[in-house]
């Protein structure tokens, strides 16, 4: 029976596949300067279930900034970068000024914010929590927020992770605690460690799996010396903190620290302010292309075109990769063992000299080993030994994954005791995104008891790999690398001079298949054979496949960015248009102001009418007499005084107050609206720099004052109005009594006892027929005054209403202009970005066409 256990009952996953965004530092020829911008993948632990949930399914809005999709989204740490270190007390005491500074910092240069917990003398849990909430609300998702030591608070405020001191929790515990409390999230929490020594740094990065380090640089320490004495081997970003807290100044050479290999600096708010924007911009070009890391892969592949064919040996740990290589080389050059033996990428190339000292292995600064060996197979083929794809330290697994795109051919070593495990399947799937040709070997086939077990296993592997790779052309060699090596070694301990001299006998069953594998590989080296041609094609296709992958990632990014640019444009346009709704709201609210004003005018009118009613009485003989006899030049009459002092005067004051408030309301409402719009634009597009010329324009729009309605009222004089009233009254009395003479007038004295107009008229009618006729016109005259008052008051109401409406329209118009003005740069920026992205899309599709042509040409390559 074939041991298919691993497929039926998956082995407990040790550590899972995470495909990191950063590619390994290319081989010797290509080494990035330490101060270049990179994206560091953050490695972490996870579980199987998590692996099955691709990050991009869970986070549709997250941009795929990397070519290496993994089960979890590992936060990328851009380097160089600035870590802003905050004290909770400073945040709370600093109030809005401190928050403003943090806001500016994260919008410009800071990629990570660390809020001190118990480290650095942080305050109580309560104040730390409050500070964390404040900082989180400012930072939002623009930078990573990490809390010192306090996993609970980091979780409570949904921070990106924690920073642990030397004596703090183990990284894995902190990470698991955070992951446990946010099972929904596909973004892994960050765990950073503060270290003081190279050993602690190595330990934190290698065994602990910290994501980055904060190195507290003592006053006497020189980073150059420290880096060369151990920190240099640390593979995760190291941010340097000036422990003496003297502050990083330019004179101290913050940029020198970066050149020494630091990934960035840890600065306080004060230090950040002192350094200034320009200096920071010079030091930290944080706006680097996210695909730069992957691009180096392409450049590297192109430069390798003339180099020997690159055969990468991949497979799970302990599957026998090193033994296969040793068997191919004919000598035990590489260590073999049941515990993972290959921790780094080992690059084997040919050394002409056979002397022992020429057979050397060098450790490259990036951790890779380069071994120069005299084995003939290396003459035309470089072989790469990789760490297992399921090794305990995730970094090693990553190394292997990162190496895949560079290889021209993958030799996939499957162990007979566990054929095609889950992690092998996952790894195979991964290789396919790079369109890699894979040749399988079923190693340790000596473990099968008989040929039918072997046949069964082979059938199983072929069937499944066919499905996985979607091809019928699956090449599988069942081998026993150990037997093949032993056979070679026992036949000649001095092998390796020439392949043709290898005494691997076809007749020996255990090693015969290895012979076939070797034949296959050697046929690759002979350009005159079909497989030899294929080798050339594969070599040429390596950069093409990388380019295609890059291109498709670029296309996705550009498509997504265009989508965002379109959304931005729509948002800007809609925001500008929405000012109309704001105007409608203001208009609706203004109705109550108009109502109040109208009812004030109306109330005043009513009071005037009441006064008319009570004044224009024939029974008011005193009044009649004084109007008729005193004449126009006489002192102001009491009724007039009442109009002036009690009715019109206070009404005008009230109206002025009311309209003043109305104008203030208009002004503050539009100013508030304008401010809200401005904030919305600024909040959404923190990166758009607002042109200074615009600021004047916007200030101009908002400064425009409106005052039409108040001017209408100001034009009314209480004195003039009451004079007019007096004139009207006098005219009414004169018109009525002026022709009666003394008899009529004295007769009318009778009426002084009679209260109503009707009674007045009756009495007068009794006294004289002529008097009756004259006096009978009095009601009409009174009515005329009433009408006049109505007309004036209604006219005034109309005028005021119109003026109020005009003030509203002008205010709203100013607000609309203001919003249009402030929105324009954002609208233009979005449009410009969209246009550029559309051009870019076209460029990319042209590149795509060229790549297709190239691929066809490579397929048609012939040796002449
Ligand atoms: N029975 C048998 N054992 C083998 C064979 N090939 C390798 N082994 C054994 O398997 C174990 C692991 O071999 P390595 O070559 O170190 O395996 P590896 O895949 O390079 O291991 P890592 O470098 O740790 O990933 C060793 O004990 C080998 O002796 C084989 O063909 N048959």
Automatic annotation (TrEMBL):
It holds the Pfam family MMR_HSR1. Residues 32-41 have a biased composition (Basic residues). GO terms for biological process: thylakoid membrane organization. Residues 312-444 form the G domain. One of its GO terms (molecular function) is GTP binding. Residues 786-857 form a coiled coil. The keyword Nucleotide-binding does not apply. The keyword Membrane applies. GO terms for cellular component: chloroplast membrane. It comes from the Eukaryota. Residues 47-64 have a biased composition (Low complexity). Transmembrane segments: none annotated. Keywords: Coiled coil, Membrane, Transmembrane. Residues 25-66 are annotated as: Disordered. CDD domains: DLP_2 (cd09912). PANTHER family: SARCALUMENIN, TRANSMEMBRANE GTPASE FZO. This is TRANSMEMBRANE GTPASE FZO.
